[in-house]
Amino acid sequence: MDELKIKFSTSRGSSSQHTIYCKRHSVRQPSTKIPNQRTLFTTGWPPYCGRDSIQELFSRLVGQVEGVYLQEGTKAIENEQPQTGGYMIGYIVFKEDEEVSRALSLCSTGSPPLSCCVGDTGLKKWTREYQERYPVESLLEKAAESGVTAYDEWVESEKKRKKHLSEPDEDGWVTVTKKTPIVEKPKRKKKKPQFLMLYAFQQREKQRERIAELRKKFQEDQQKVAAMRANRKFKPF
Amino acid sequence: MKRKQNKKQSAVLEGKGSRGGQDPGLGPPPAKKKPSGLYKPPTHEELQTLKETESLFRTNLIKLQITELISEVKPNSSKEASEALETFLHKLKSELSSIKTTERLKLSEGLRLLPKMIKYPLSFPPSPNIKGHFEFSPPSKIKVTGSYLLETNLKTSPNVNLTVEIPRECLQEKDYMNYRVFHKRALYLSIIAGHLIKKRKLISSLDFTYDLNYPLLPILTLTPKDSSQFTVYIHTTIPADTFPLTKLLPSKSNVRRFARPFPFGEKEEEERECDHEDLPPLPTPHYNSAILLEMGSREKHLEELYSASAVDCPSITEATLLCKTWLHQRGLDQGYGGFTGFHASMVLLYLLRQRKLNHFMSSYQVFRIFLQFLANSNWDERGISLGDRENYPSLPSIDEFHSSFPIVFIDSSGYLNLTAHTSLHQYHALRQEAGLCHALLDKSDGSFGSVFLKPVKPVLKYDALCKFDLSAGNIKGSPLFDRNSDKWEELVFDFGGWVWPGVLDEVMRVIDKGLEGRVQLISQLPVKRNKWAVTAVSPTLAGSDVTLGLIFNTERVYEPLIMGPPADSNEASTFRSFWGEKSELRRFPDGSINEAVLWTEEKGEGEKRNVPRLIIDHILKRHTHIEGVVLTHNTLDSLLSSGKGSIDTREGVSVGVVNAFIELSRELRQLKDLPLEIATVKGASPIFCHTEVHPPLPWNGKSSSKVRSLPLPLVQDHCLHPSCDVTTPTLTPCFHVVMEMEASGKWPDSPDAIDNIKTAFYLSISSSLRKQHGLITGTSKDYIDILKKGYVFRLTIFYLREVSILNDLRTPQSLSKAKGLEKDCISKPLLVSTLNGLHNQFPAYSLGTRLCKKWVCSHLLTNQIPDEAVELLVAHLFLHPGPYLVPGSSVCVLLRFFDLLLSHDWPRDPLLVDLNNQLNDETTSEIISSFSKDRERQPLMFIATPLDHTSKLTKDRPSAPVMGRLLTLAKASLNLLTNQIDSLQIGRESPDFKQIFRSPLTDYHLLIHLDESKVPRLQTGRVSSVDGHHYSHLPIVQFDPVHLYVQALESAYSNLAMFFYDKHGGSVIGVLWKQAAFKPHPFKPNGMQCRVTISKSESKLLVAPDKEVIISDMMILGDGLVRNIEVLETRPS
């Protein structure tokens, strides 16, 4: 792991110097979006640091940046996830392999920290978010409508696909898909009517049960009181 | 025997495991195997015990608990100790018999016989006018009496009563007159004291005290040197036939006016110049009963009690211990006129004579009957007597006693009223406690602890404590206590110059009348029994500060109007003379004209809460000249008021919000062009159950000049927006409303699509509300904000199936979203409506809850303890008041809240809050067993309700350190507030009660100081009408930068630190590092917050979080809000 010293500063003058750990990205199954060789894997980005700031930093110092992907864990990099305000891992995808090397060369010890400007934080960010919460209604409407239409289309296509699958194709094959099995509820057995006090042994049995029950309760209560005594609960004064 | 049984039982327990799995079905028993464990054949004795328990003790648990308790309350009785005590008593006896006879003197000069170092224990010397002689000769009998022989001593005050009989030669026929017998016994005891004080080897301390706290009956109290566990009291007695009993009837007068007691130092010249002999004699009932007590009663009582416990009903001994413990825990046996253990045993004797007890009863049954009897007794109207009037018709009738004493309980002689000193109020308190506990015994849960184990503290018991100064100087010249009246003289004679009990009775009568219908119980708190060294002067008996405990009748206590009789009726003048100039003629809506007293014109509840104080203040001033009354019930209410100096606690706002909400939901249902019908509209914020700490004022419609509406098209949508450059506006909170639509099959199956459909709904509802009802609304993706009557309601739509759809997806995000939905849209509205029920049922609920929440928040625990948990804890106080009545004032709720936090055994017991009475025994035991099965994994503060069996509410919070801090704070607050209330004194500056709401800031590692202009303030001012307002846009809703900042901090650093703040203002955030997280650890790609390299080698990279970096990041995260961050010096951990 190499260390990149970066000094983040806001437009209002506060600043904070961080150590960002980085290395060349290499995993067994790289995704198309984040290829192995030309990606710089970095970790330790503070929550107020946006993608734009990182892109700006590396395109200024290294070269062309194809994309920056920020997330809060190493898992599931397929989908863009909403940020929850934690510290982040960043995948910085460059155009060329050498640019990664150049980026790593910035990590040499003793070099002054890189400076990086961050966007809105604190009060500025919260006021902006407040405004965004009440968007223009026509835009909101449009977004909702398109969402619903997209869903409708998706449902339609799903239906078609399934229908398509269940029909034999040119060669006469039918794709069999997994269906959720219907769980059958276990049928309730009807209780047979019992004659309770028919035999003498039943009577005896009942008596025995009663005594056992009494004993059991007695034991339980004894345990309870023993526990209370152990916890010194009988200290009235 | 007991031990043996235990052993047997444990053997049984072990045996149980071997057969545990087998299901006892209907089949024949396995005949060949030898039955063991639960199924082994029972012995006759065992069967007997098992069956007996059921019939005698209701459950095993009670029986076992009682056995345990009895062994705990008895004094340690080792053989050596009791032998040592016996030897001591023998030695003492021989010492007493060896005192030499003295010369014979006139009683009026008797003080010459007083040994040198001893001070006379009566407060006045023998009057020179009295006749009679006195000489000391050794006691004719010395006997041990009282509870020691009955083995009913309590651990708290183990004592031996030694009764010495004054021999006949010291007494004269007419000694019952003019305090003669009291002077003689005082002298007698003084001479004994003079002898014993020299025996330093035998006795470690020698004091005087008053028997029954009655100042004519001093007794000696001494502690033996070697067995100091016991205190020995030396009483005197005189032969039972010394005086004729008929002379000592309560109506008889035995003090002539010439013998008026003048305390030491008070000059006799004050004596009034009138002819004594012309005035009628004054009855001296208390004086007479004290003589009766001296006449051998103690021995006789002992005999009776002994035969009762030894012969008639053996379990009386144990039952007496239970009664004594019960009385002691309630403090009912304390002070002048207290109902002592002796009284309790006499009641048991009475019950036995009445055949209400029998030989076979258990102590538990006896105790129950005792409580029931007391609860249903009315000794103030129809007293009871142990005397046998059927066979001895010459005995005085009970009515004769009723005219002299408020409470009547006659002993077997038929002449002595055992409760002569008990006041009506003390009796009422006793009866109320008995009724309460009798009802408690029938409940299955924890009643045992409430009845016997938990001391009932006055500050927790009473809704208000009332203090005033009743010293002699203060009441001088008041019409009620005219020094020249017969009433006053009667008190002076009857109590030997000590008028205080009588004065208090009169004062209480006035207060009773003034507070008629407003209180359930008034009771005077007992003054501690004090003893003084025999070499010191007896303490003054002038009562000074009086403390009364009041239990409110919450329905009526704050009524501002006292309606009097019609103006032309006969009672009008009585009414007017009682209330004085406050009484006015008023015309009422029904046309009648009545006398009435109006205490306040204000509508606010805060003002009304002052009414009881105003009443007591006025009537005491008017009738007794007592100035200055303190009442504690609303001392803390100003914390909930709108501004400095105001006492308006804004109950009206909650009502206004609820009304606006009702109107809004009606309007919602009227909306025409919705695709689905509305099924339900529910409130989900505390304001809907009236537990919002600071109910906000309606928005005044002005966009405060400091807020600019942005010049963006957004303003077309009628929304104001905050800006970061200026002061943050006062907080306009929103109230959450959850709406459910009717069921429909058209909802989509994907969460995203559901969200989109909801947004579409919001848009259409929003525009319909605008069009149809002219309301101002703001639409967001996830909710609508609706401005109604100056309040903002945030409406969300809830679709029930969404929860299961999200749960089926099983991704972390979907699961947490499902949980959130369940909490916000199902649990919260349900809880709110349930708690609203409590608010309707108990008037003190809402204010009490608000005060408790305020306390929690003011200690910066806003985000550490869920609000709902506090609400449930307070609900517990109302639903399970334990040994108390339901609390009736906010201070009482707060104090009991502390007590609940401290006395509940959180690690071992779940707290069950039985909302709506829905927890049956089965569910309860289910909850308990699942709780104790896996305690470690359960929440620390486990609160189970019928709505939530597993305490989901407190799953994550409070954490262990917070819980610890909460308990520490509660303990400190309880102690401080109790002390402050106890030490309240008239005429002195009242202590700063708000101190318990100021949190110490020294316990944190960091303090984040915020820019106060950016912290949203609470609205101040009074509730104003909003009817005239015309609103043109939505205010800035729920914009609270502090909350947002803490959220940001928590999501970034929850693994490294804890954050503490107060949402009701306060510009400090406290930070506590989680020290364990700061140890160096190997590098991991995930969660690298502010790490720096500690050491680096080929194979290993060690990193650790850096506090400096975190602090500078905290600054950046709170840019614009944070002023500075203060690092506190190393905190003492």
UniProtKB/TrEMBL annotation, chain A:
The keyword Phosphoprotein does not apply. It comes from the Eukaryota. Keywords: Coiled coil. SUPFAM superfamilies: RNA-binding domain, RBD. Pfam families: RRP7. Residues 132-237 form the Ribosomal RNA-processing protein 7 C-terminal domain. Belongs to the RRP7 family. This is Ribosomal RNA-processing protein 7 C-terminal domain-containing protein. It comes from Amphimedon queenslandica.
Automatic annotation (TrEMBL), chain B:
Pfam families: Nrap, Nrap_D2, Nrap_D3, Nrap_D4, Nrap_D5, Nrap_D6. GO terms for molecular function: RNA binding. Residues 1-43 are annotated as: Disordered. InterPro entries: NOL6/Upt22, Nrap_D1, Nrap_D2, Nrap_D3, Nrap_D4, Nrap_D5, Nrap_D6. Keywords: Nucleus, RNA-binding. GO terms for cellular component: CURI complex; small-subunit processome; UTP-C complex. Residues 160-308, 316-454, 459-624, 636-839, 842-998, 1001-1125 form the Nrap protein domain. This is Nucleolar protein 6.
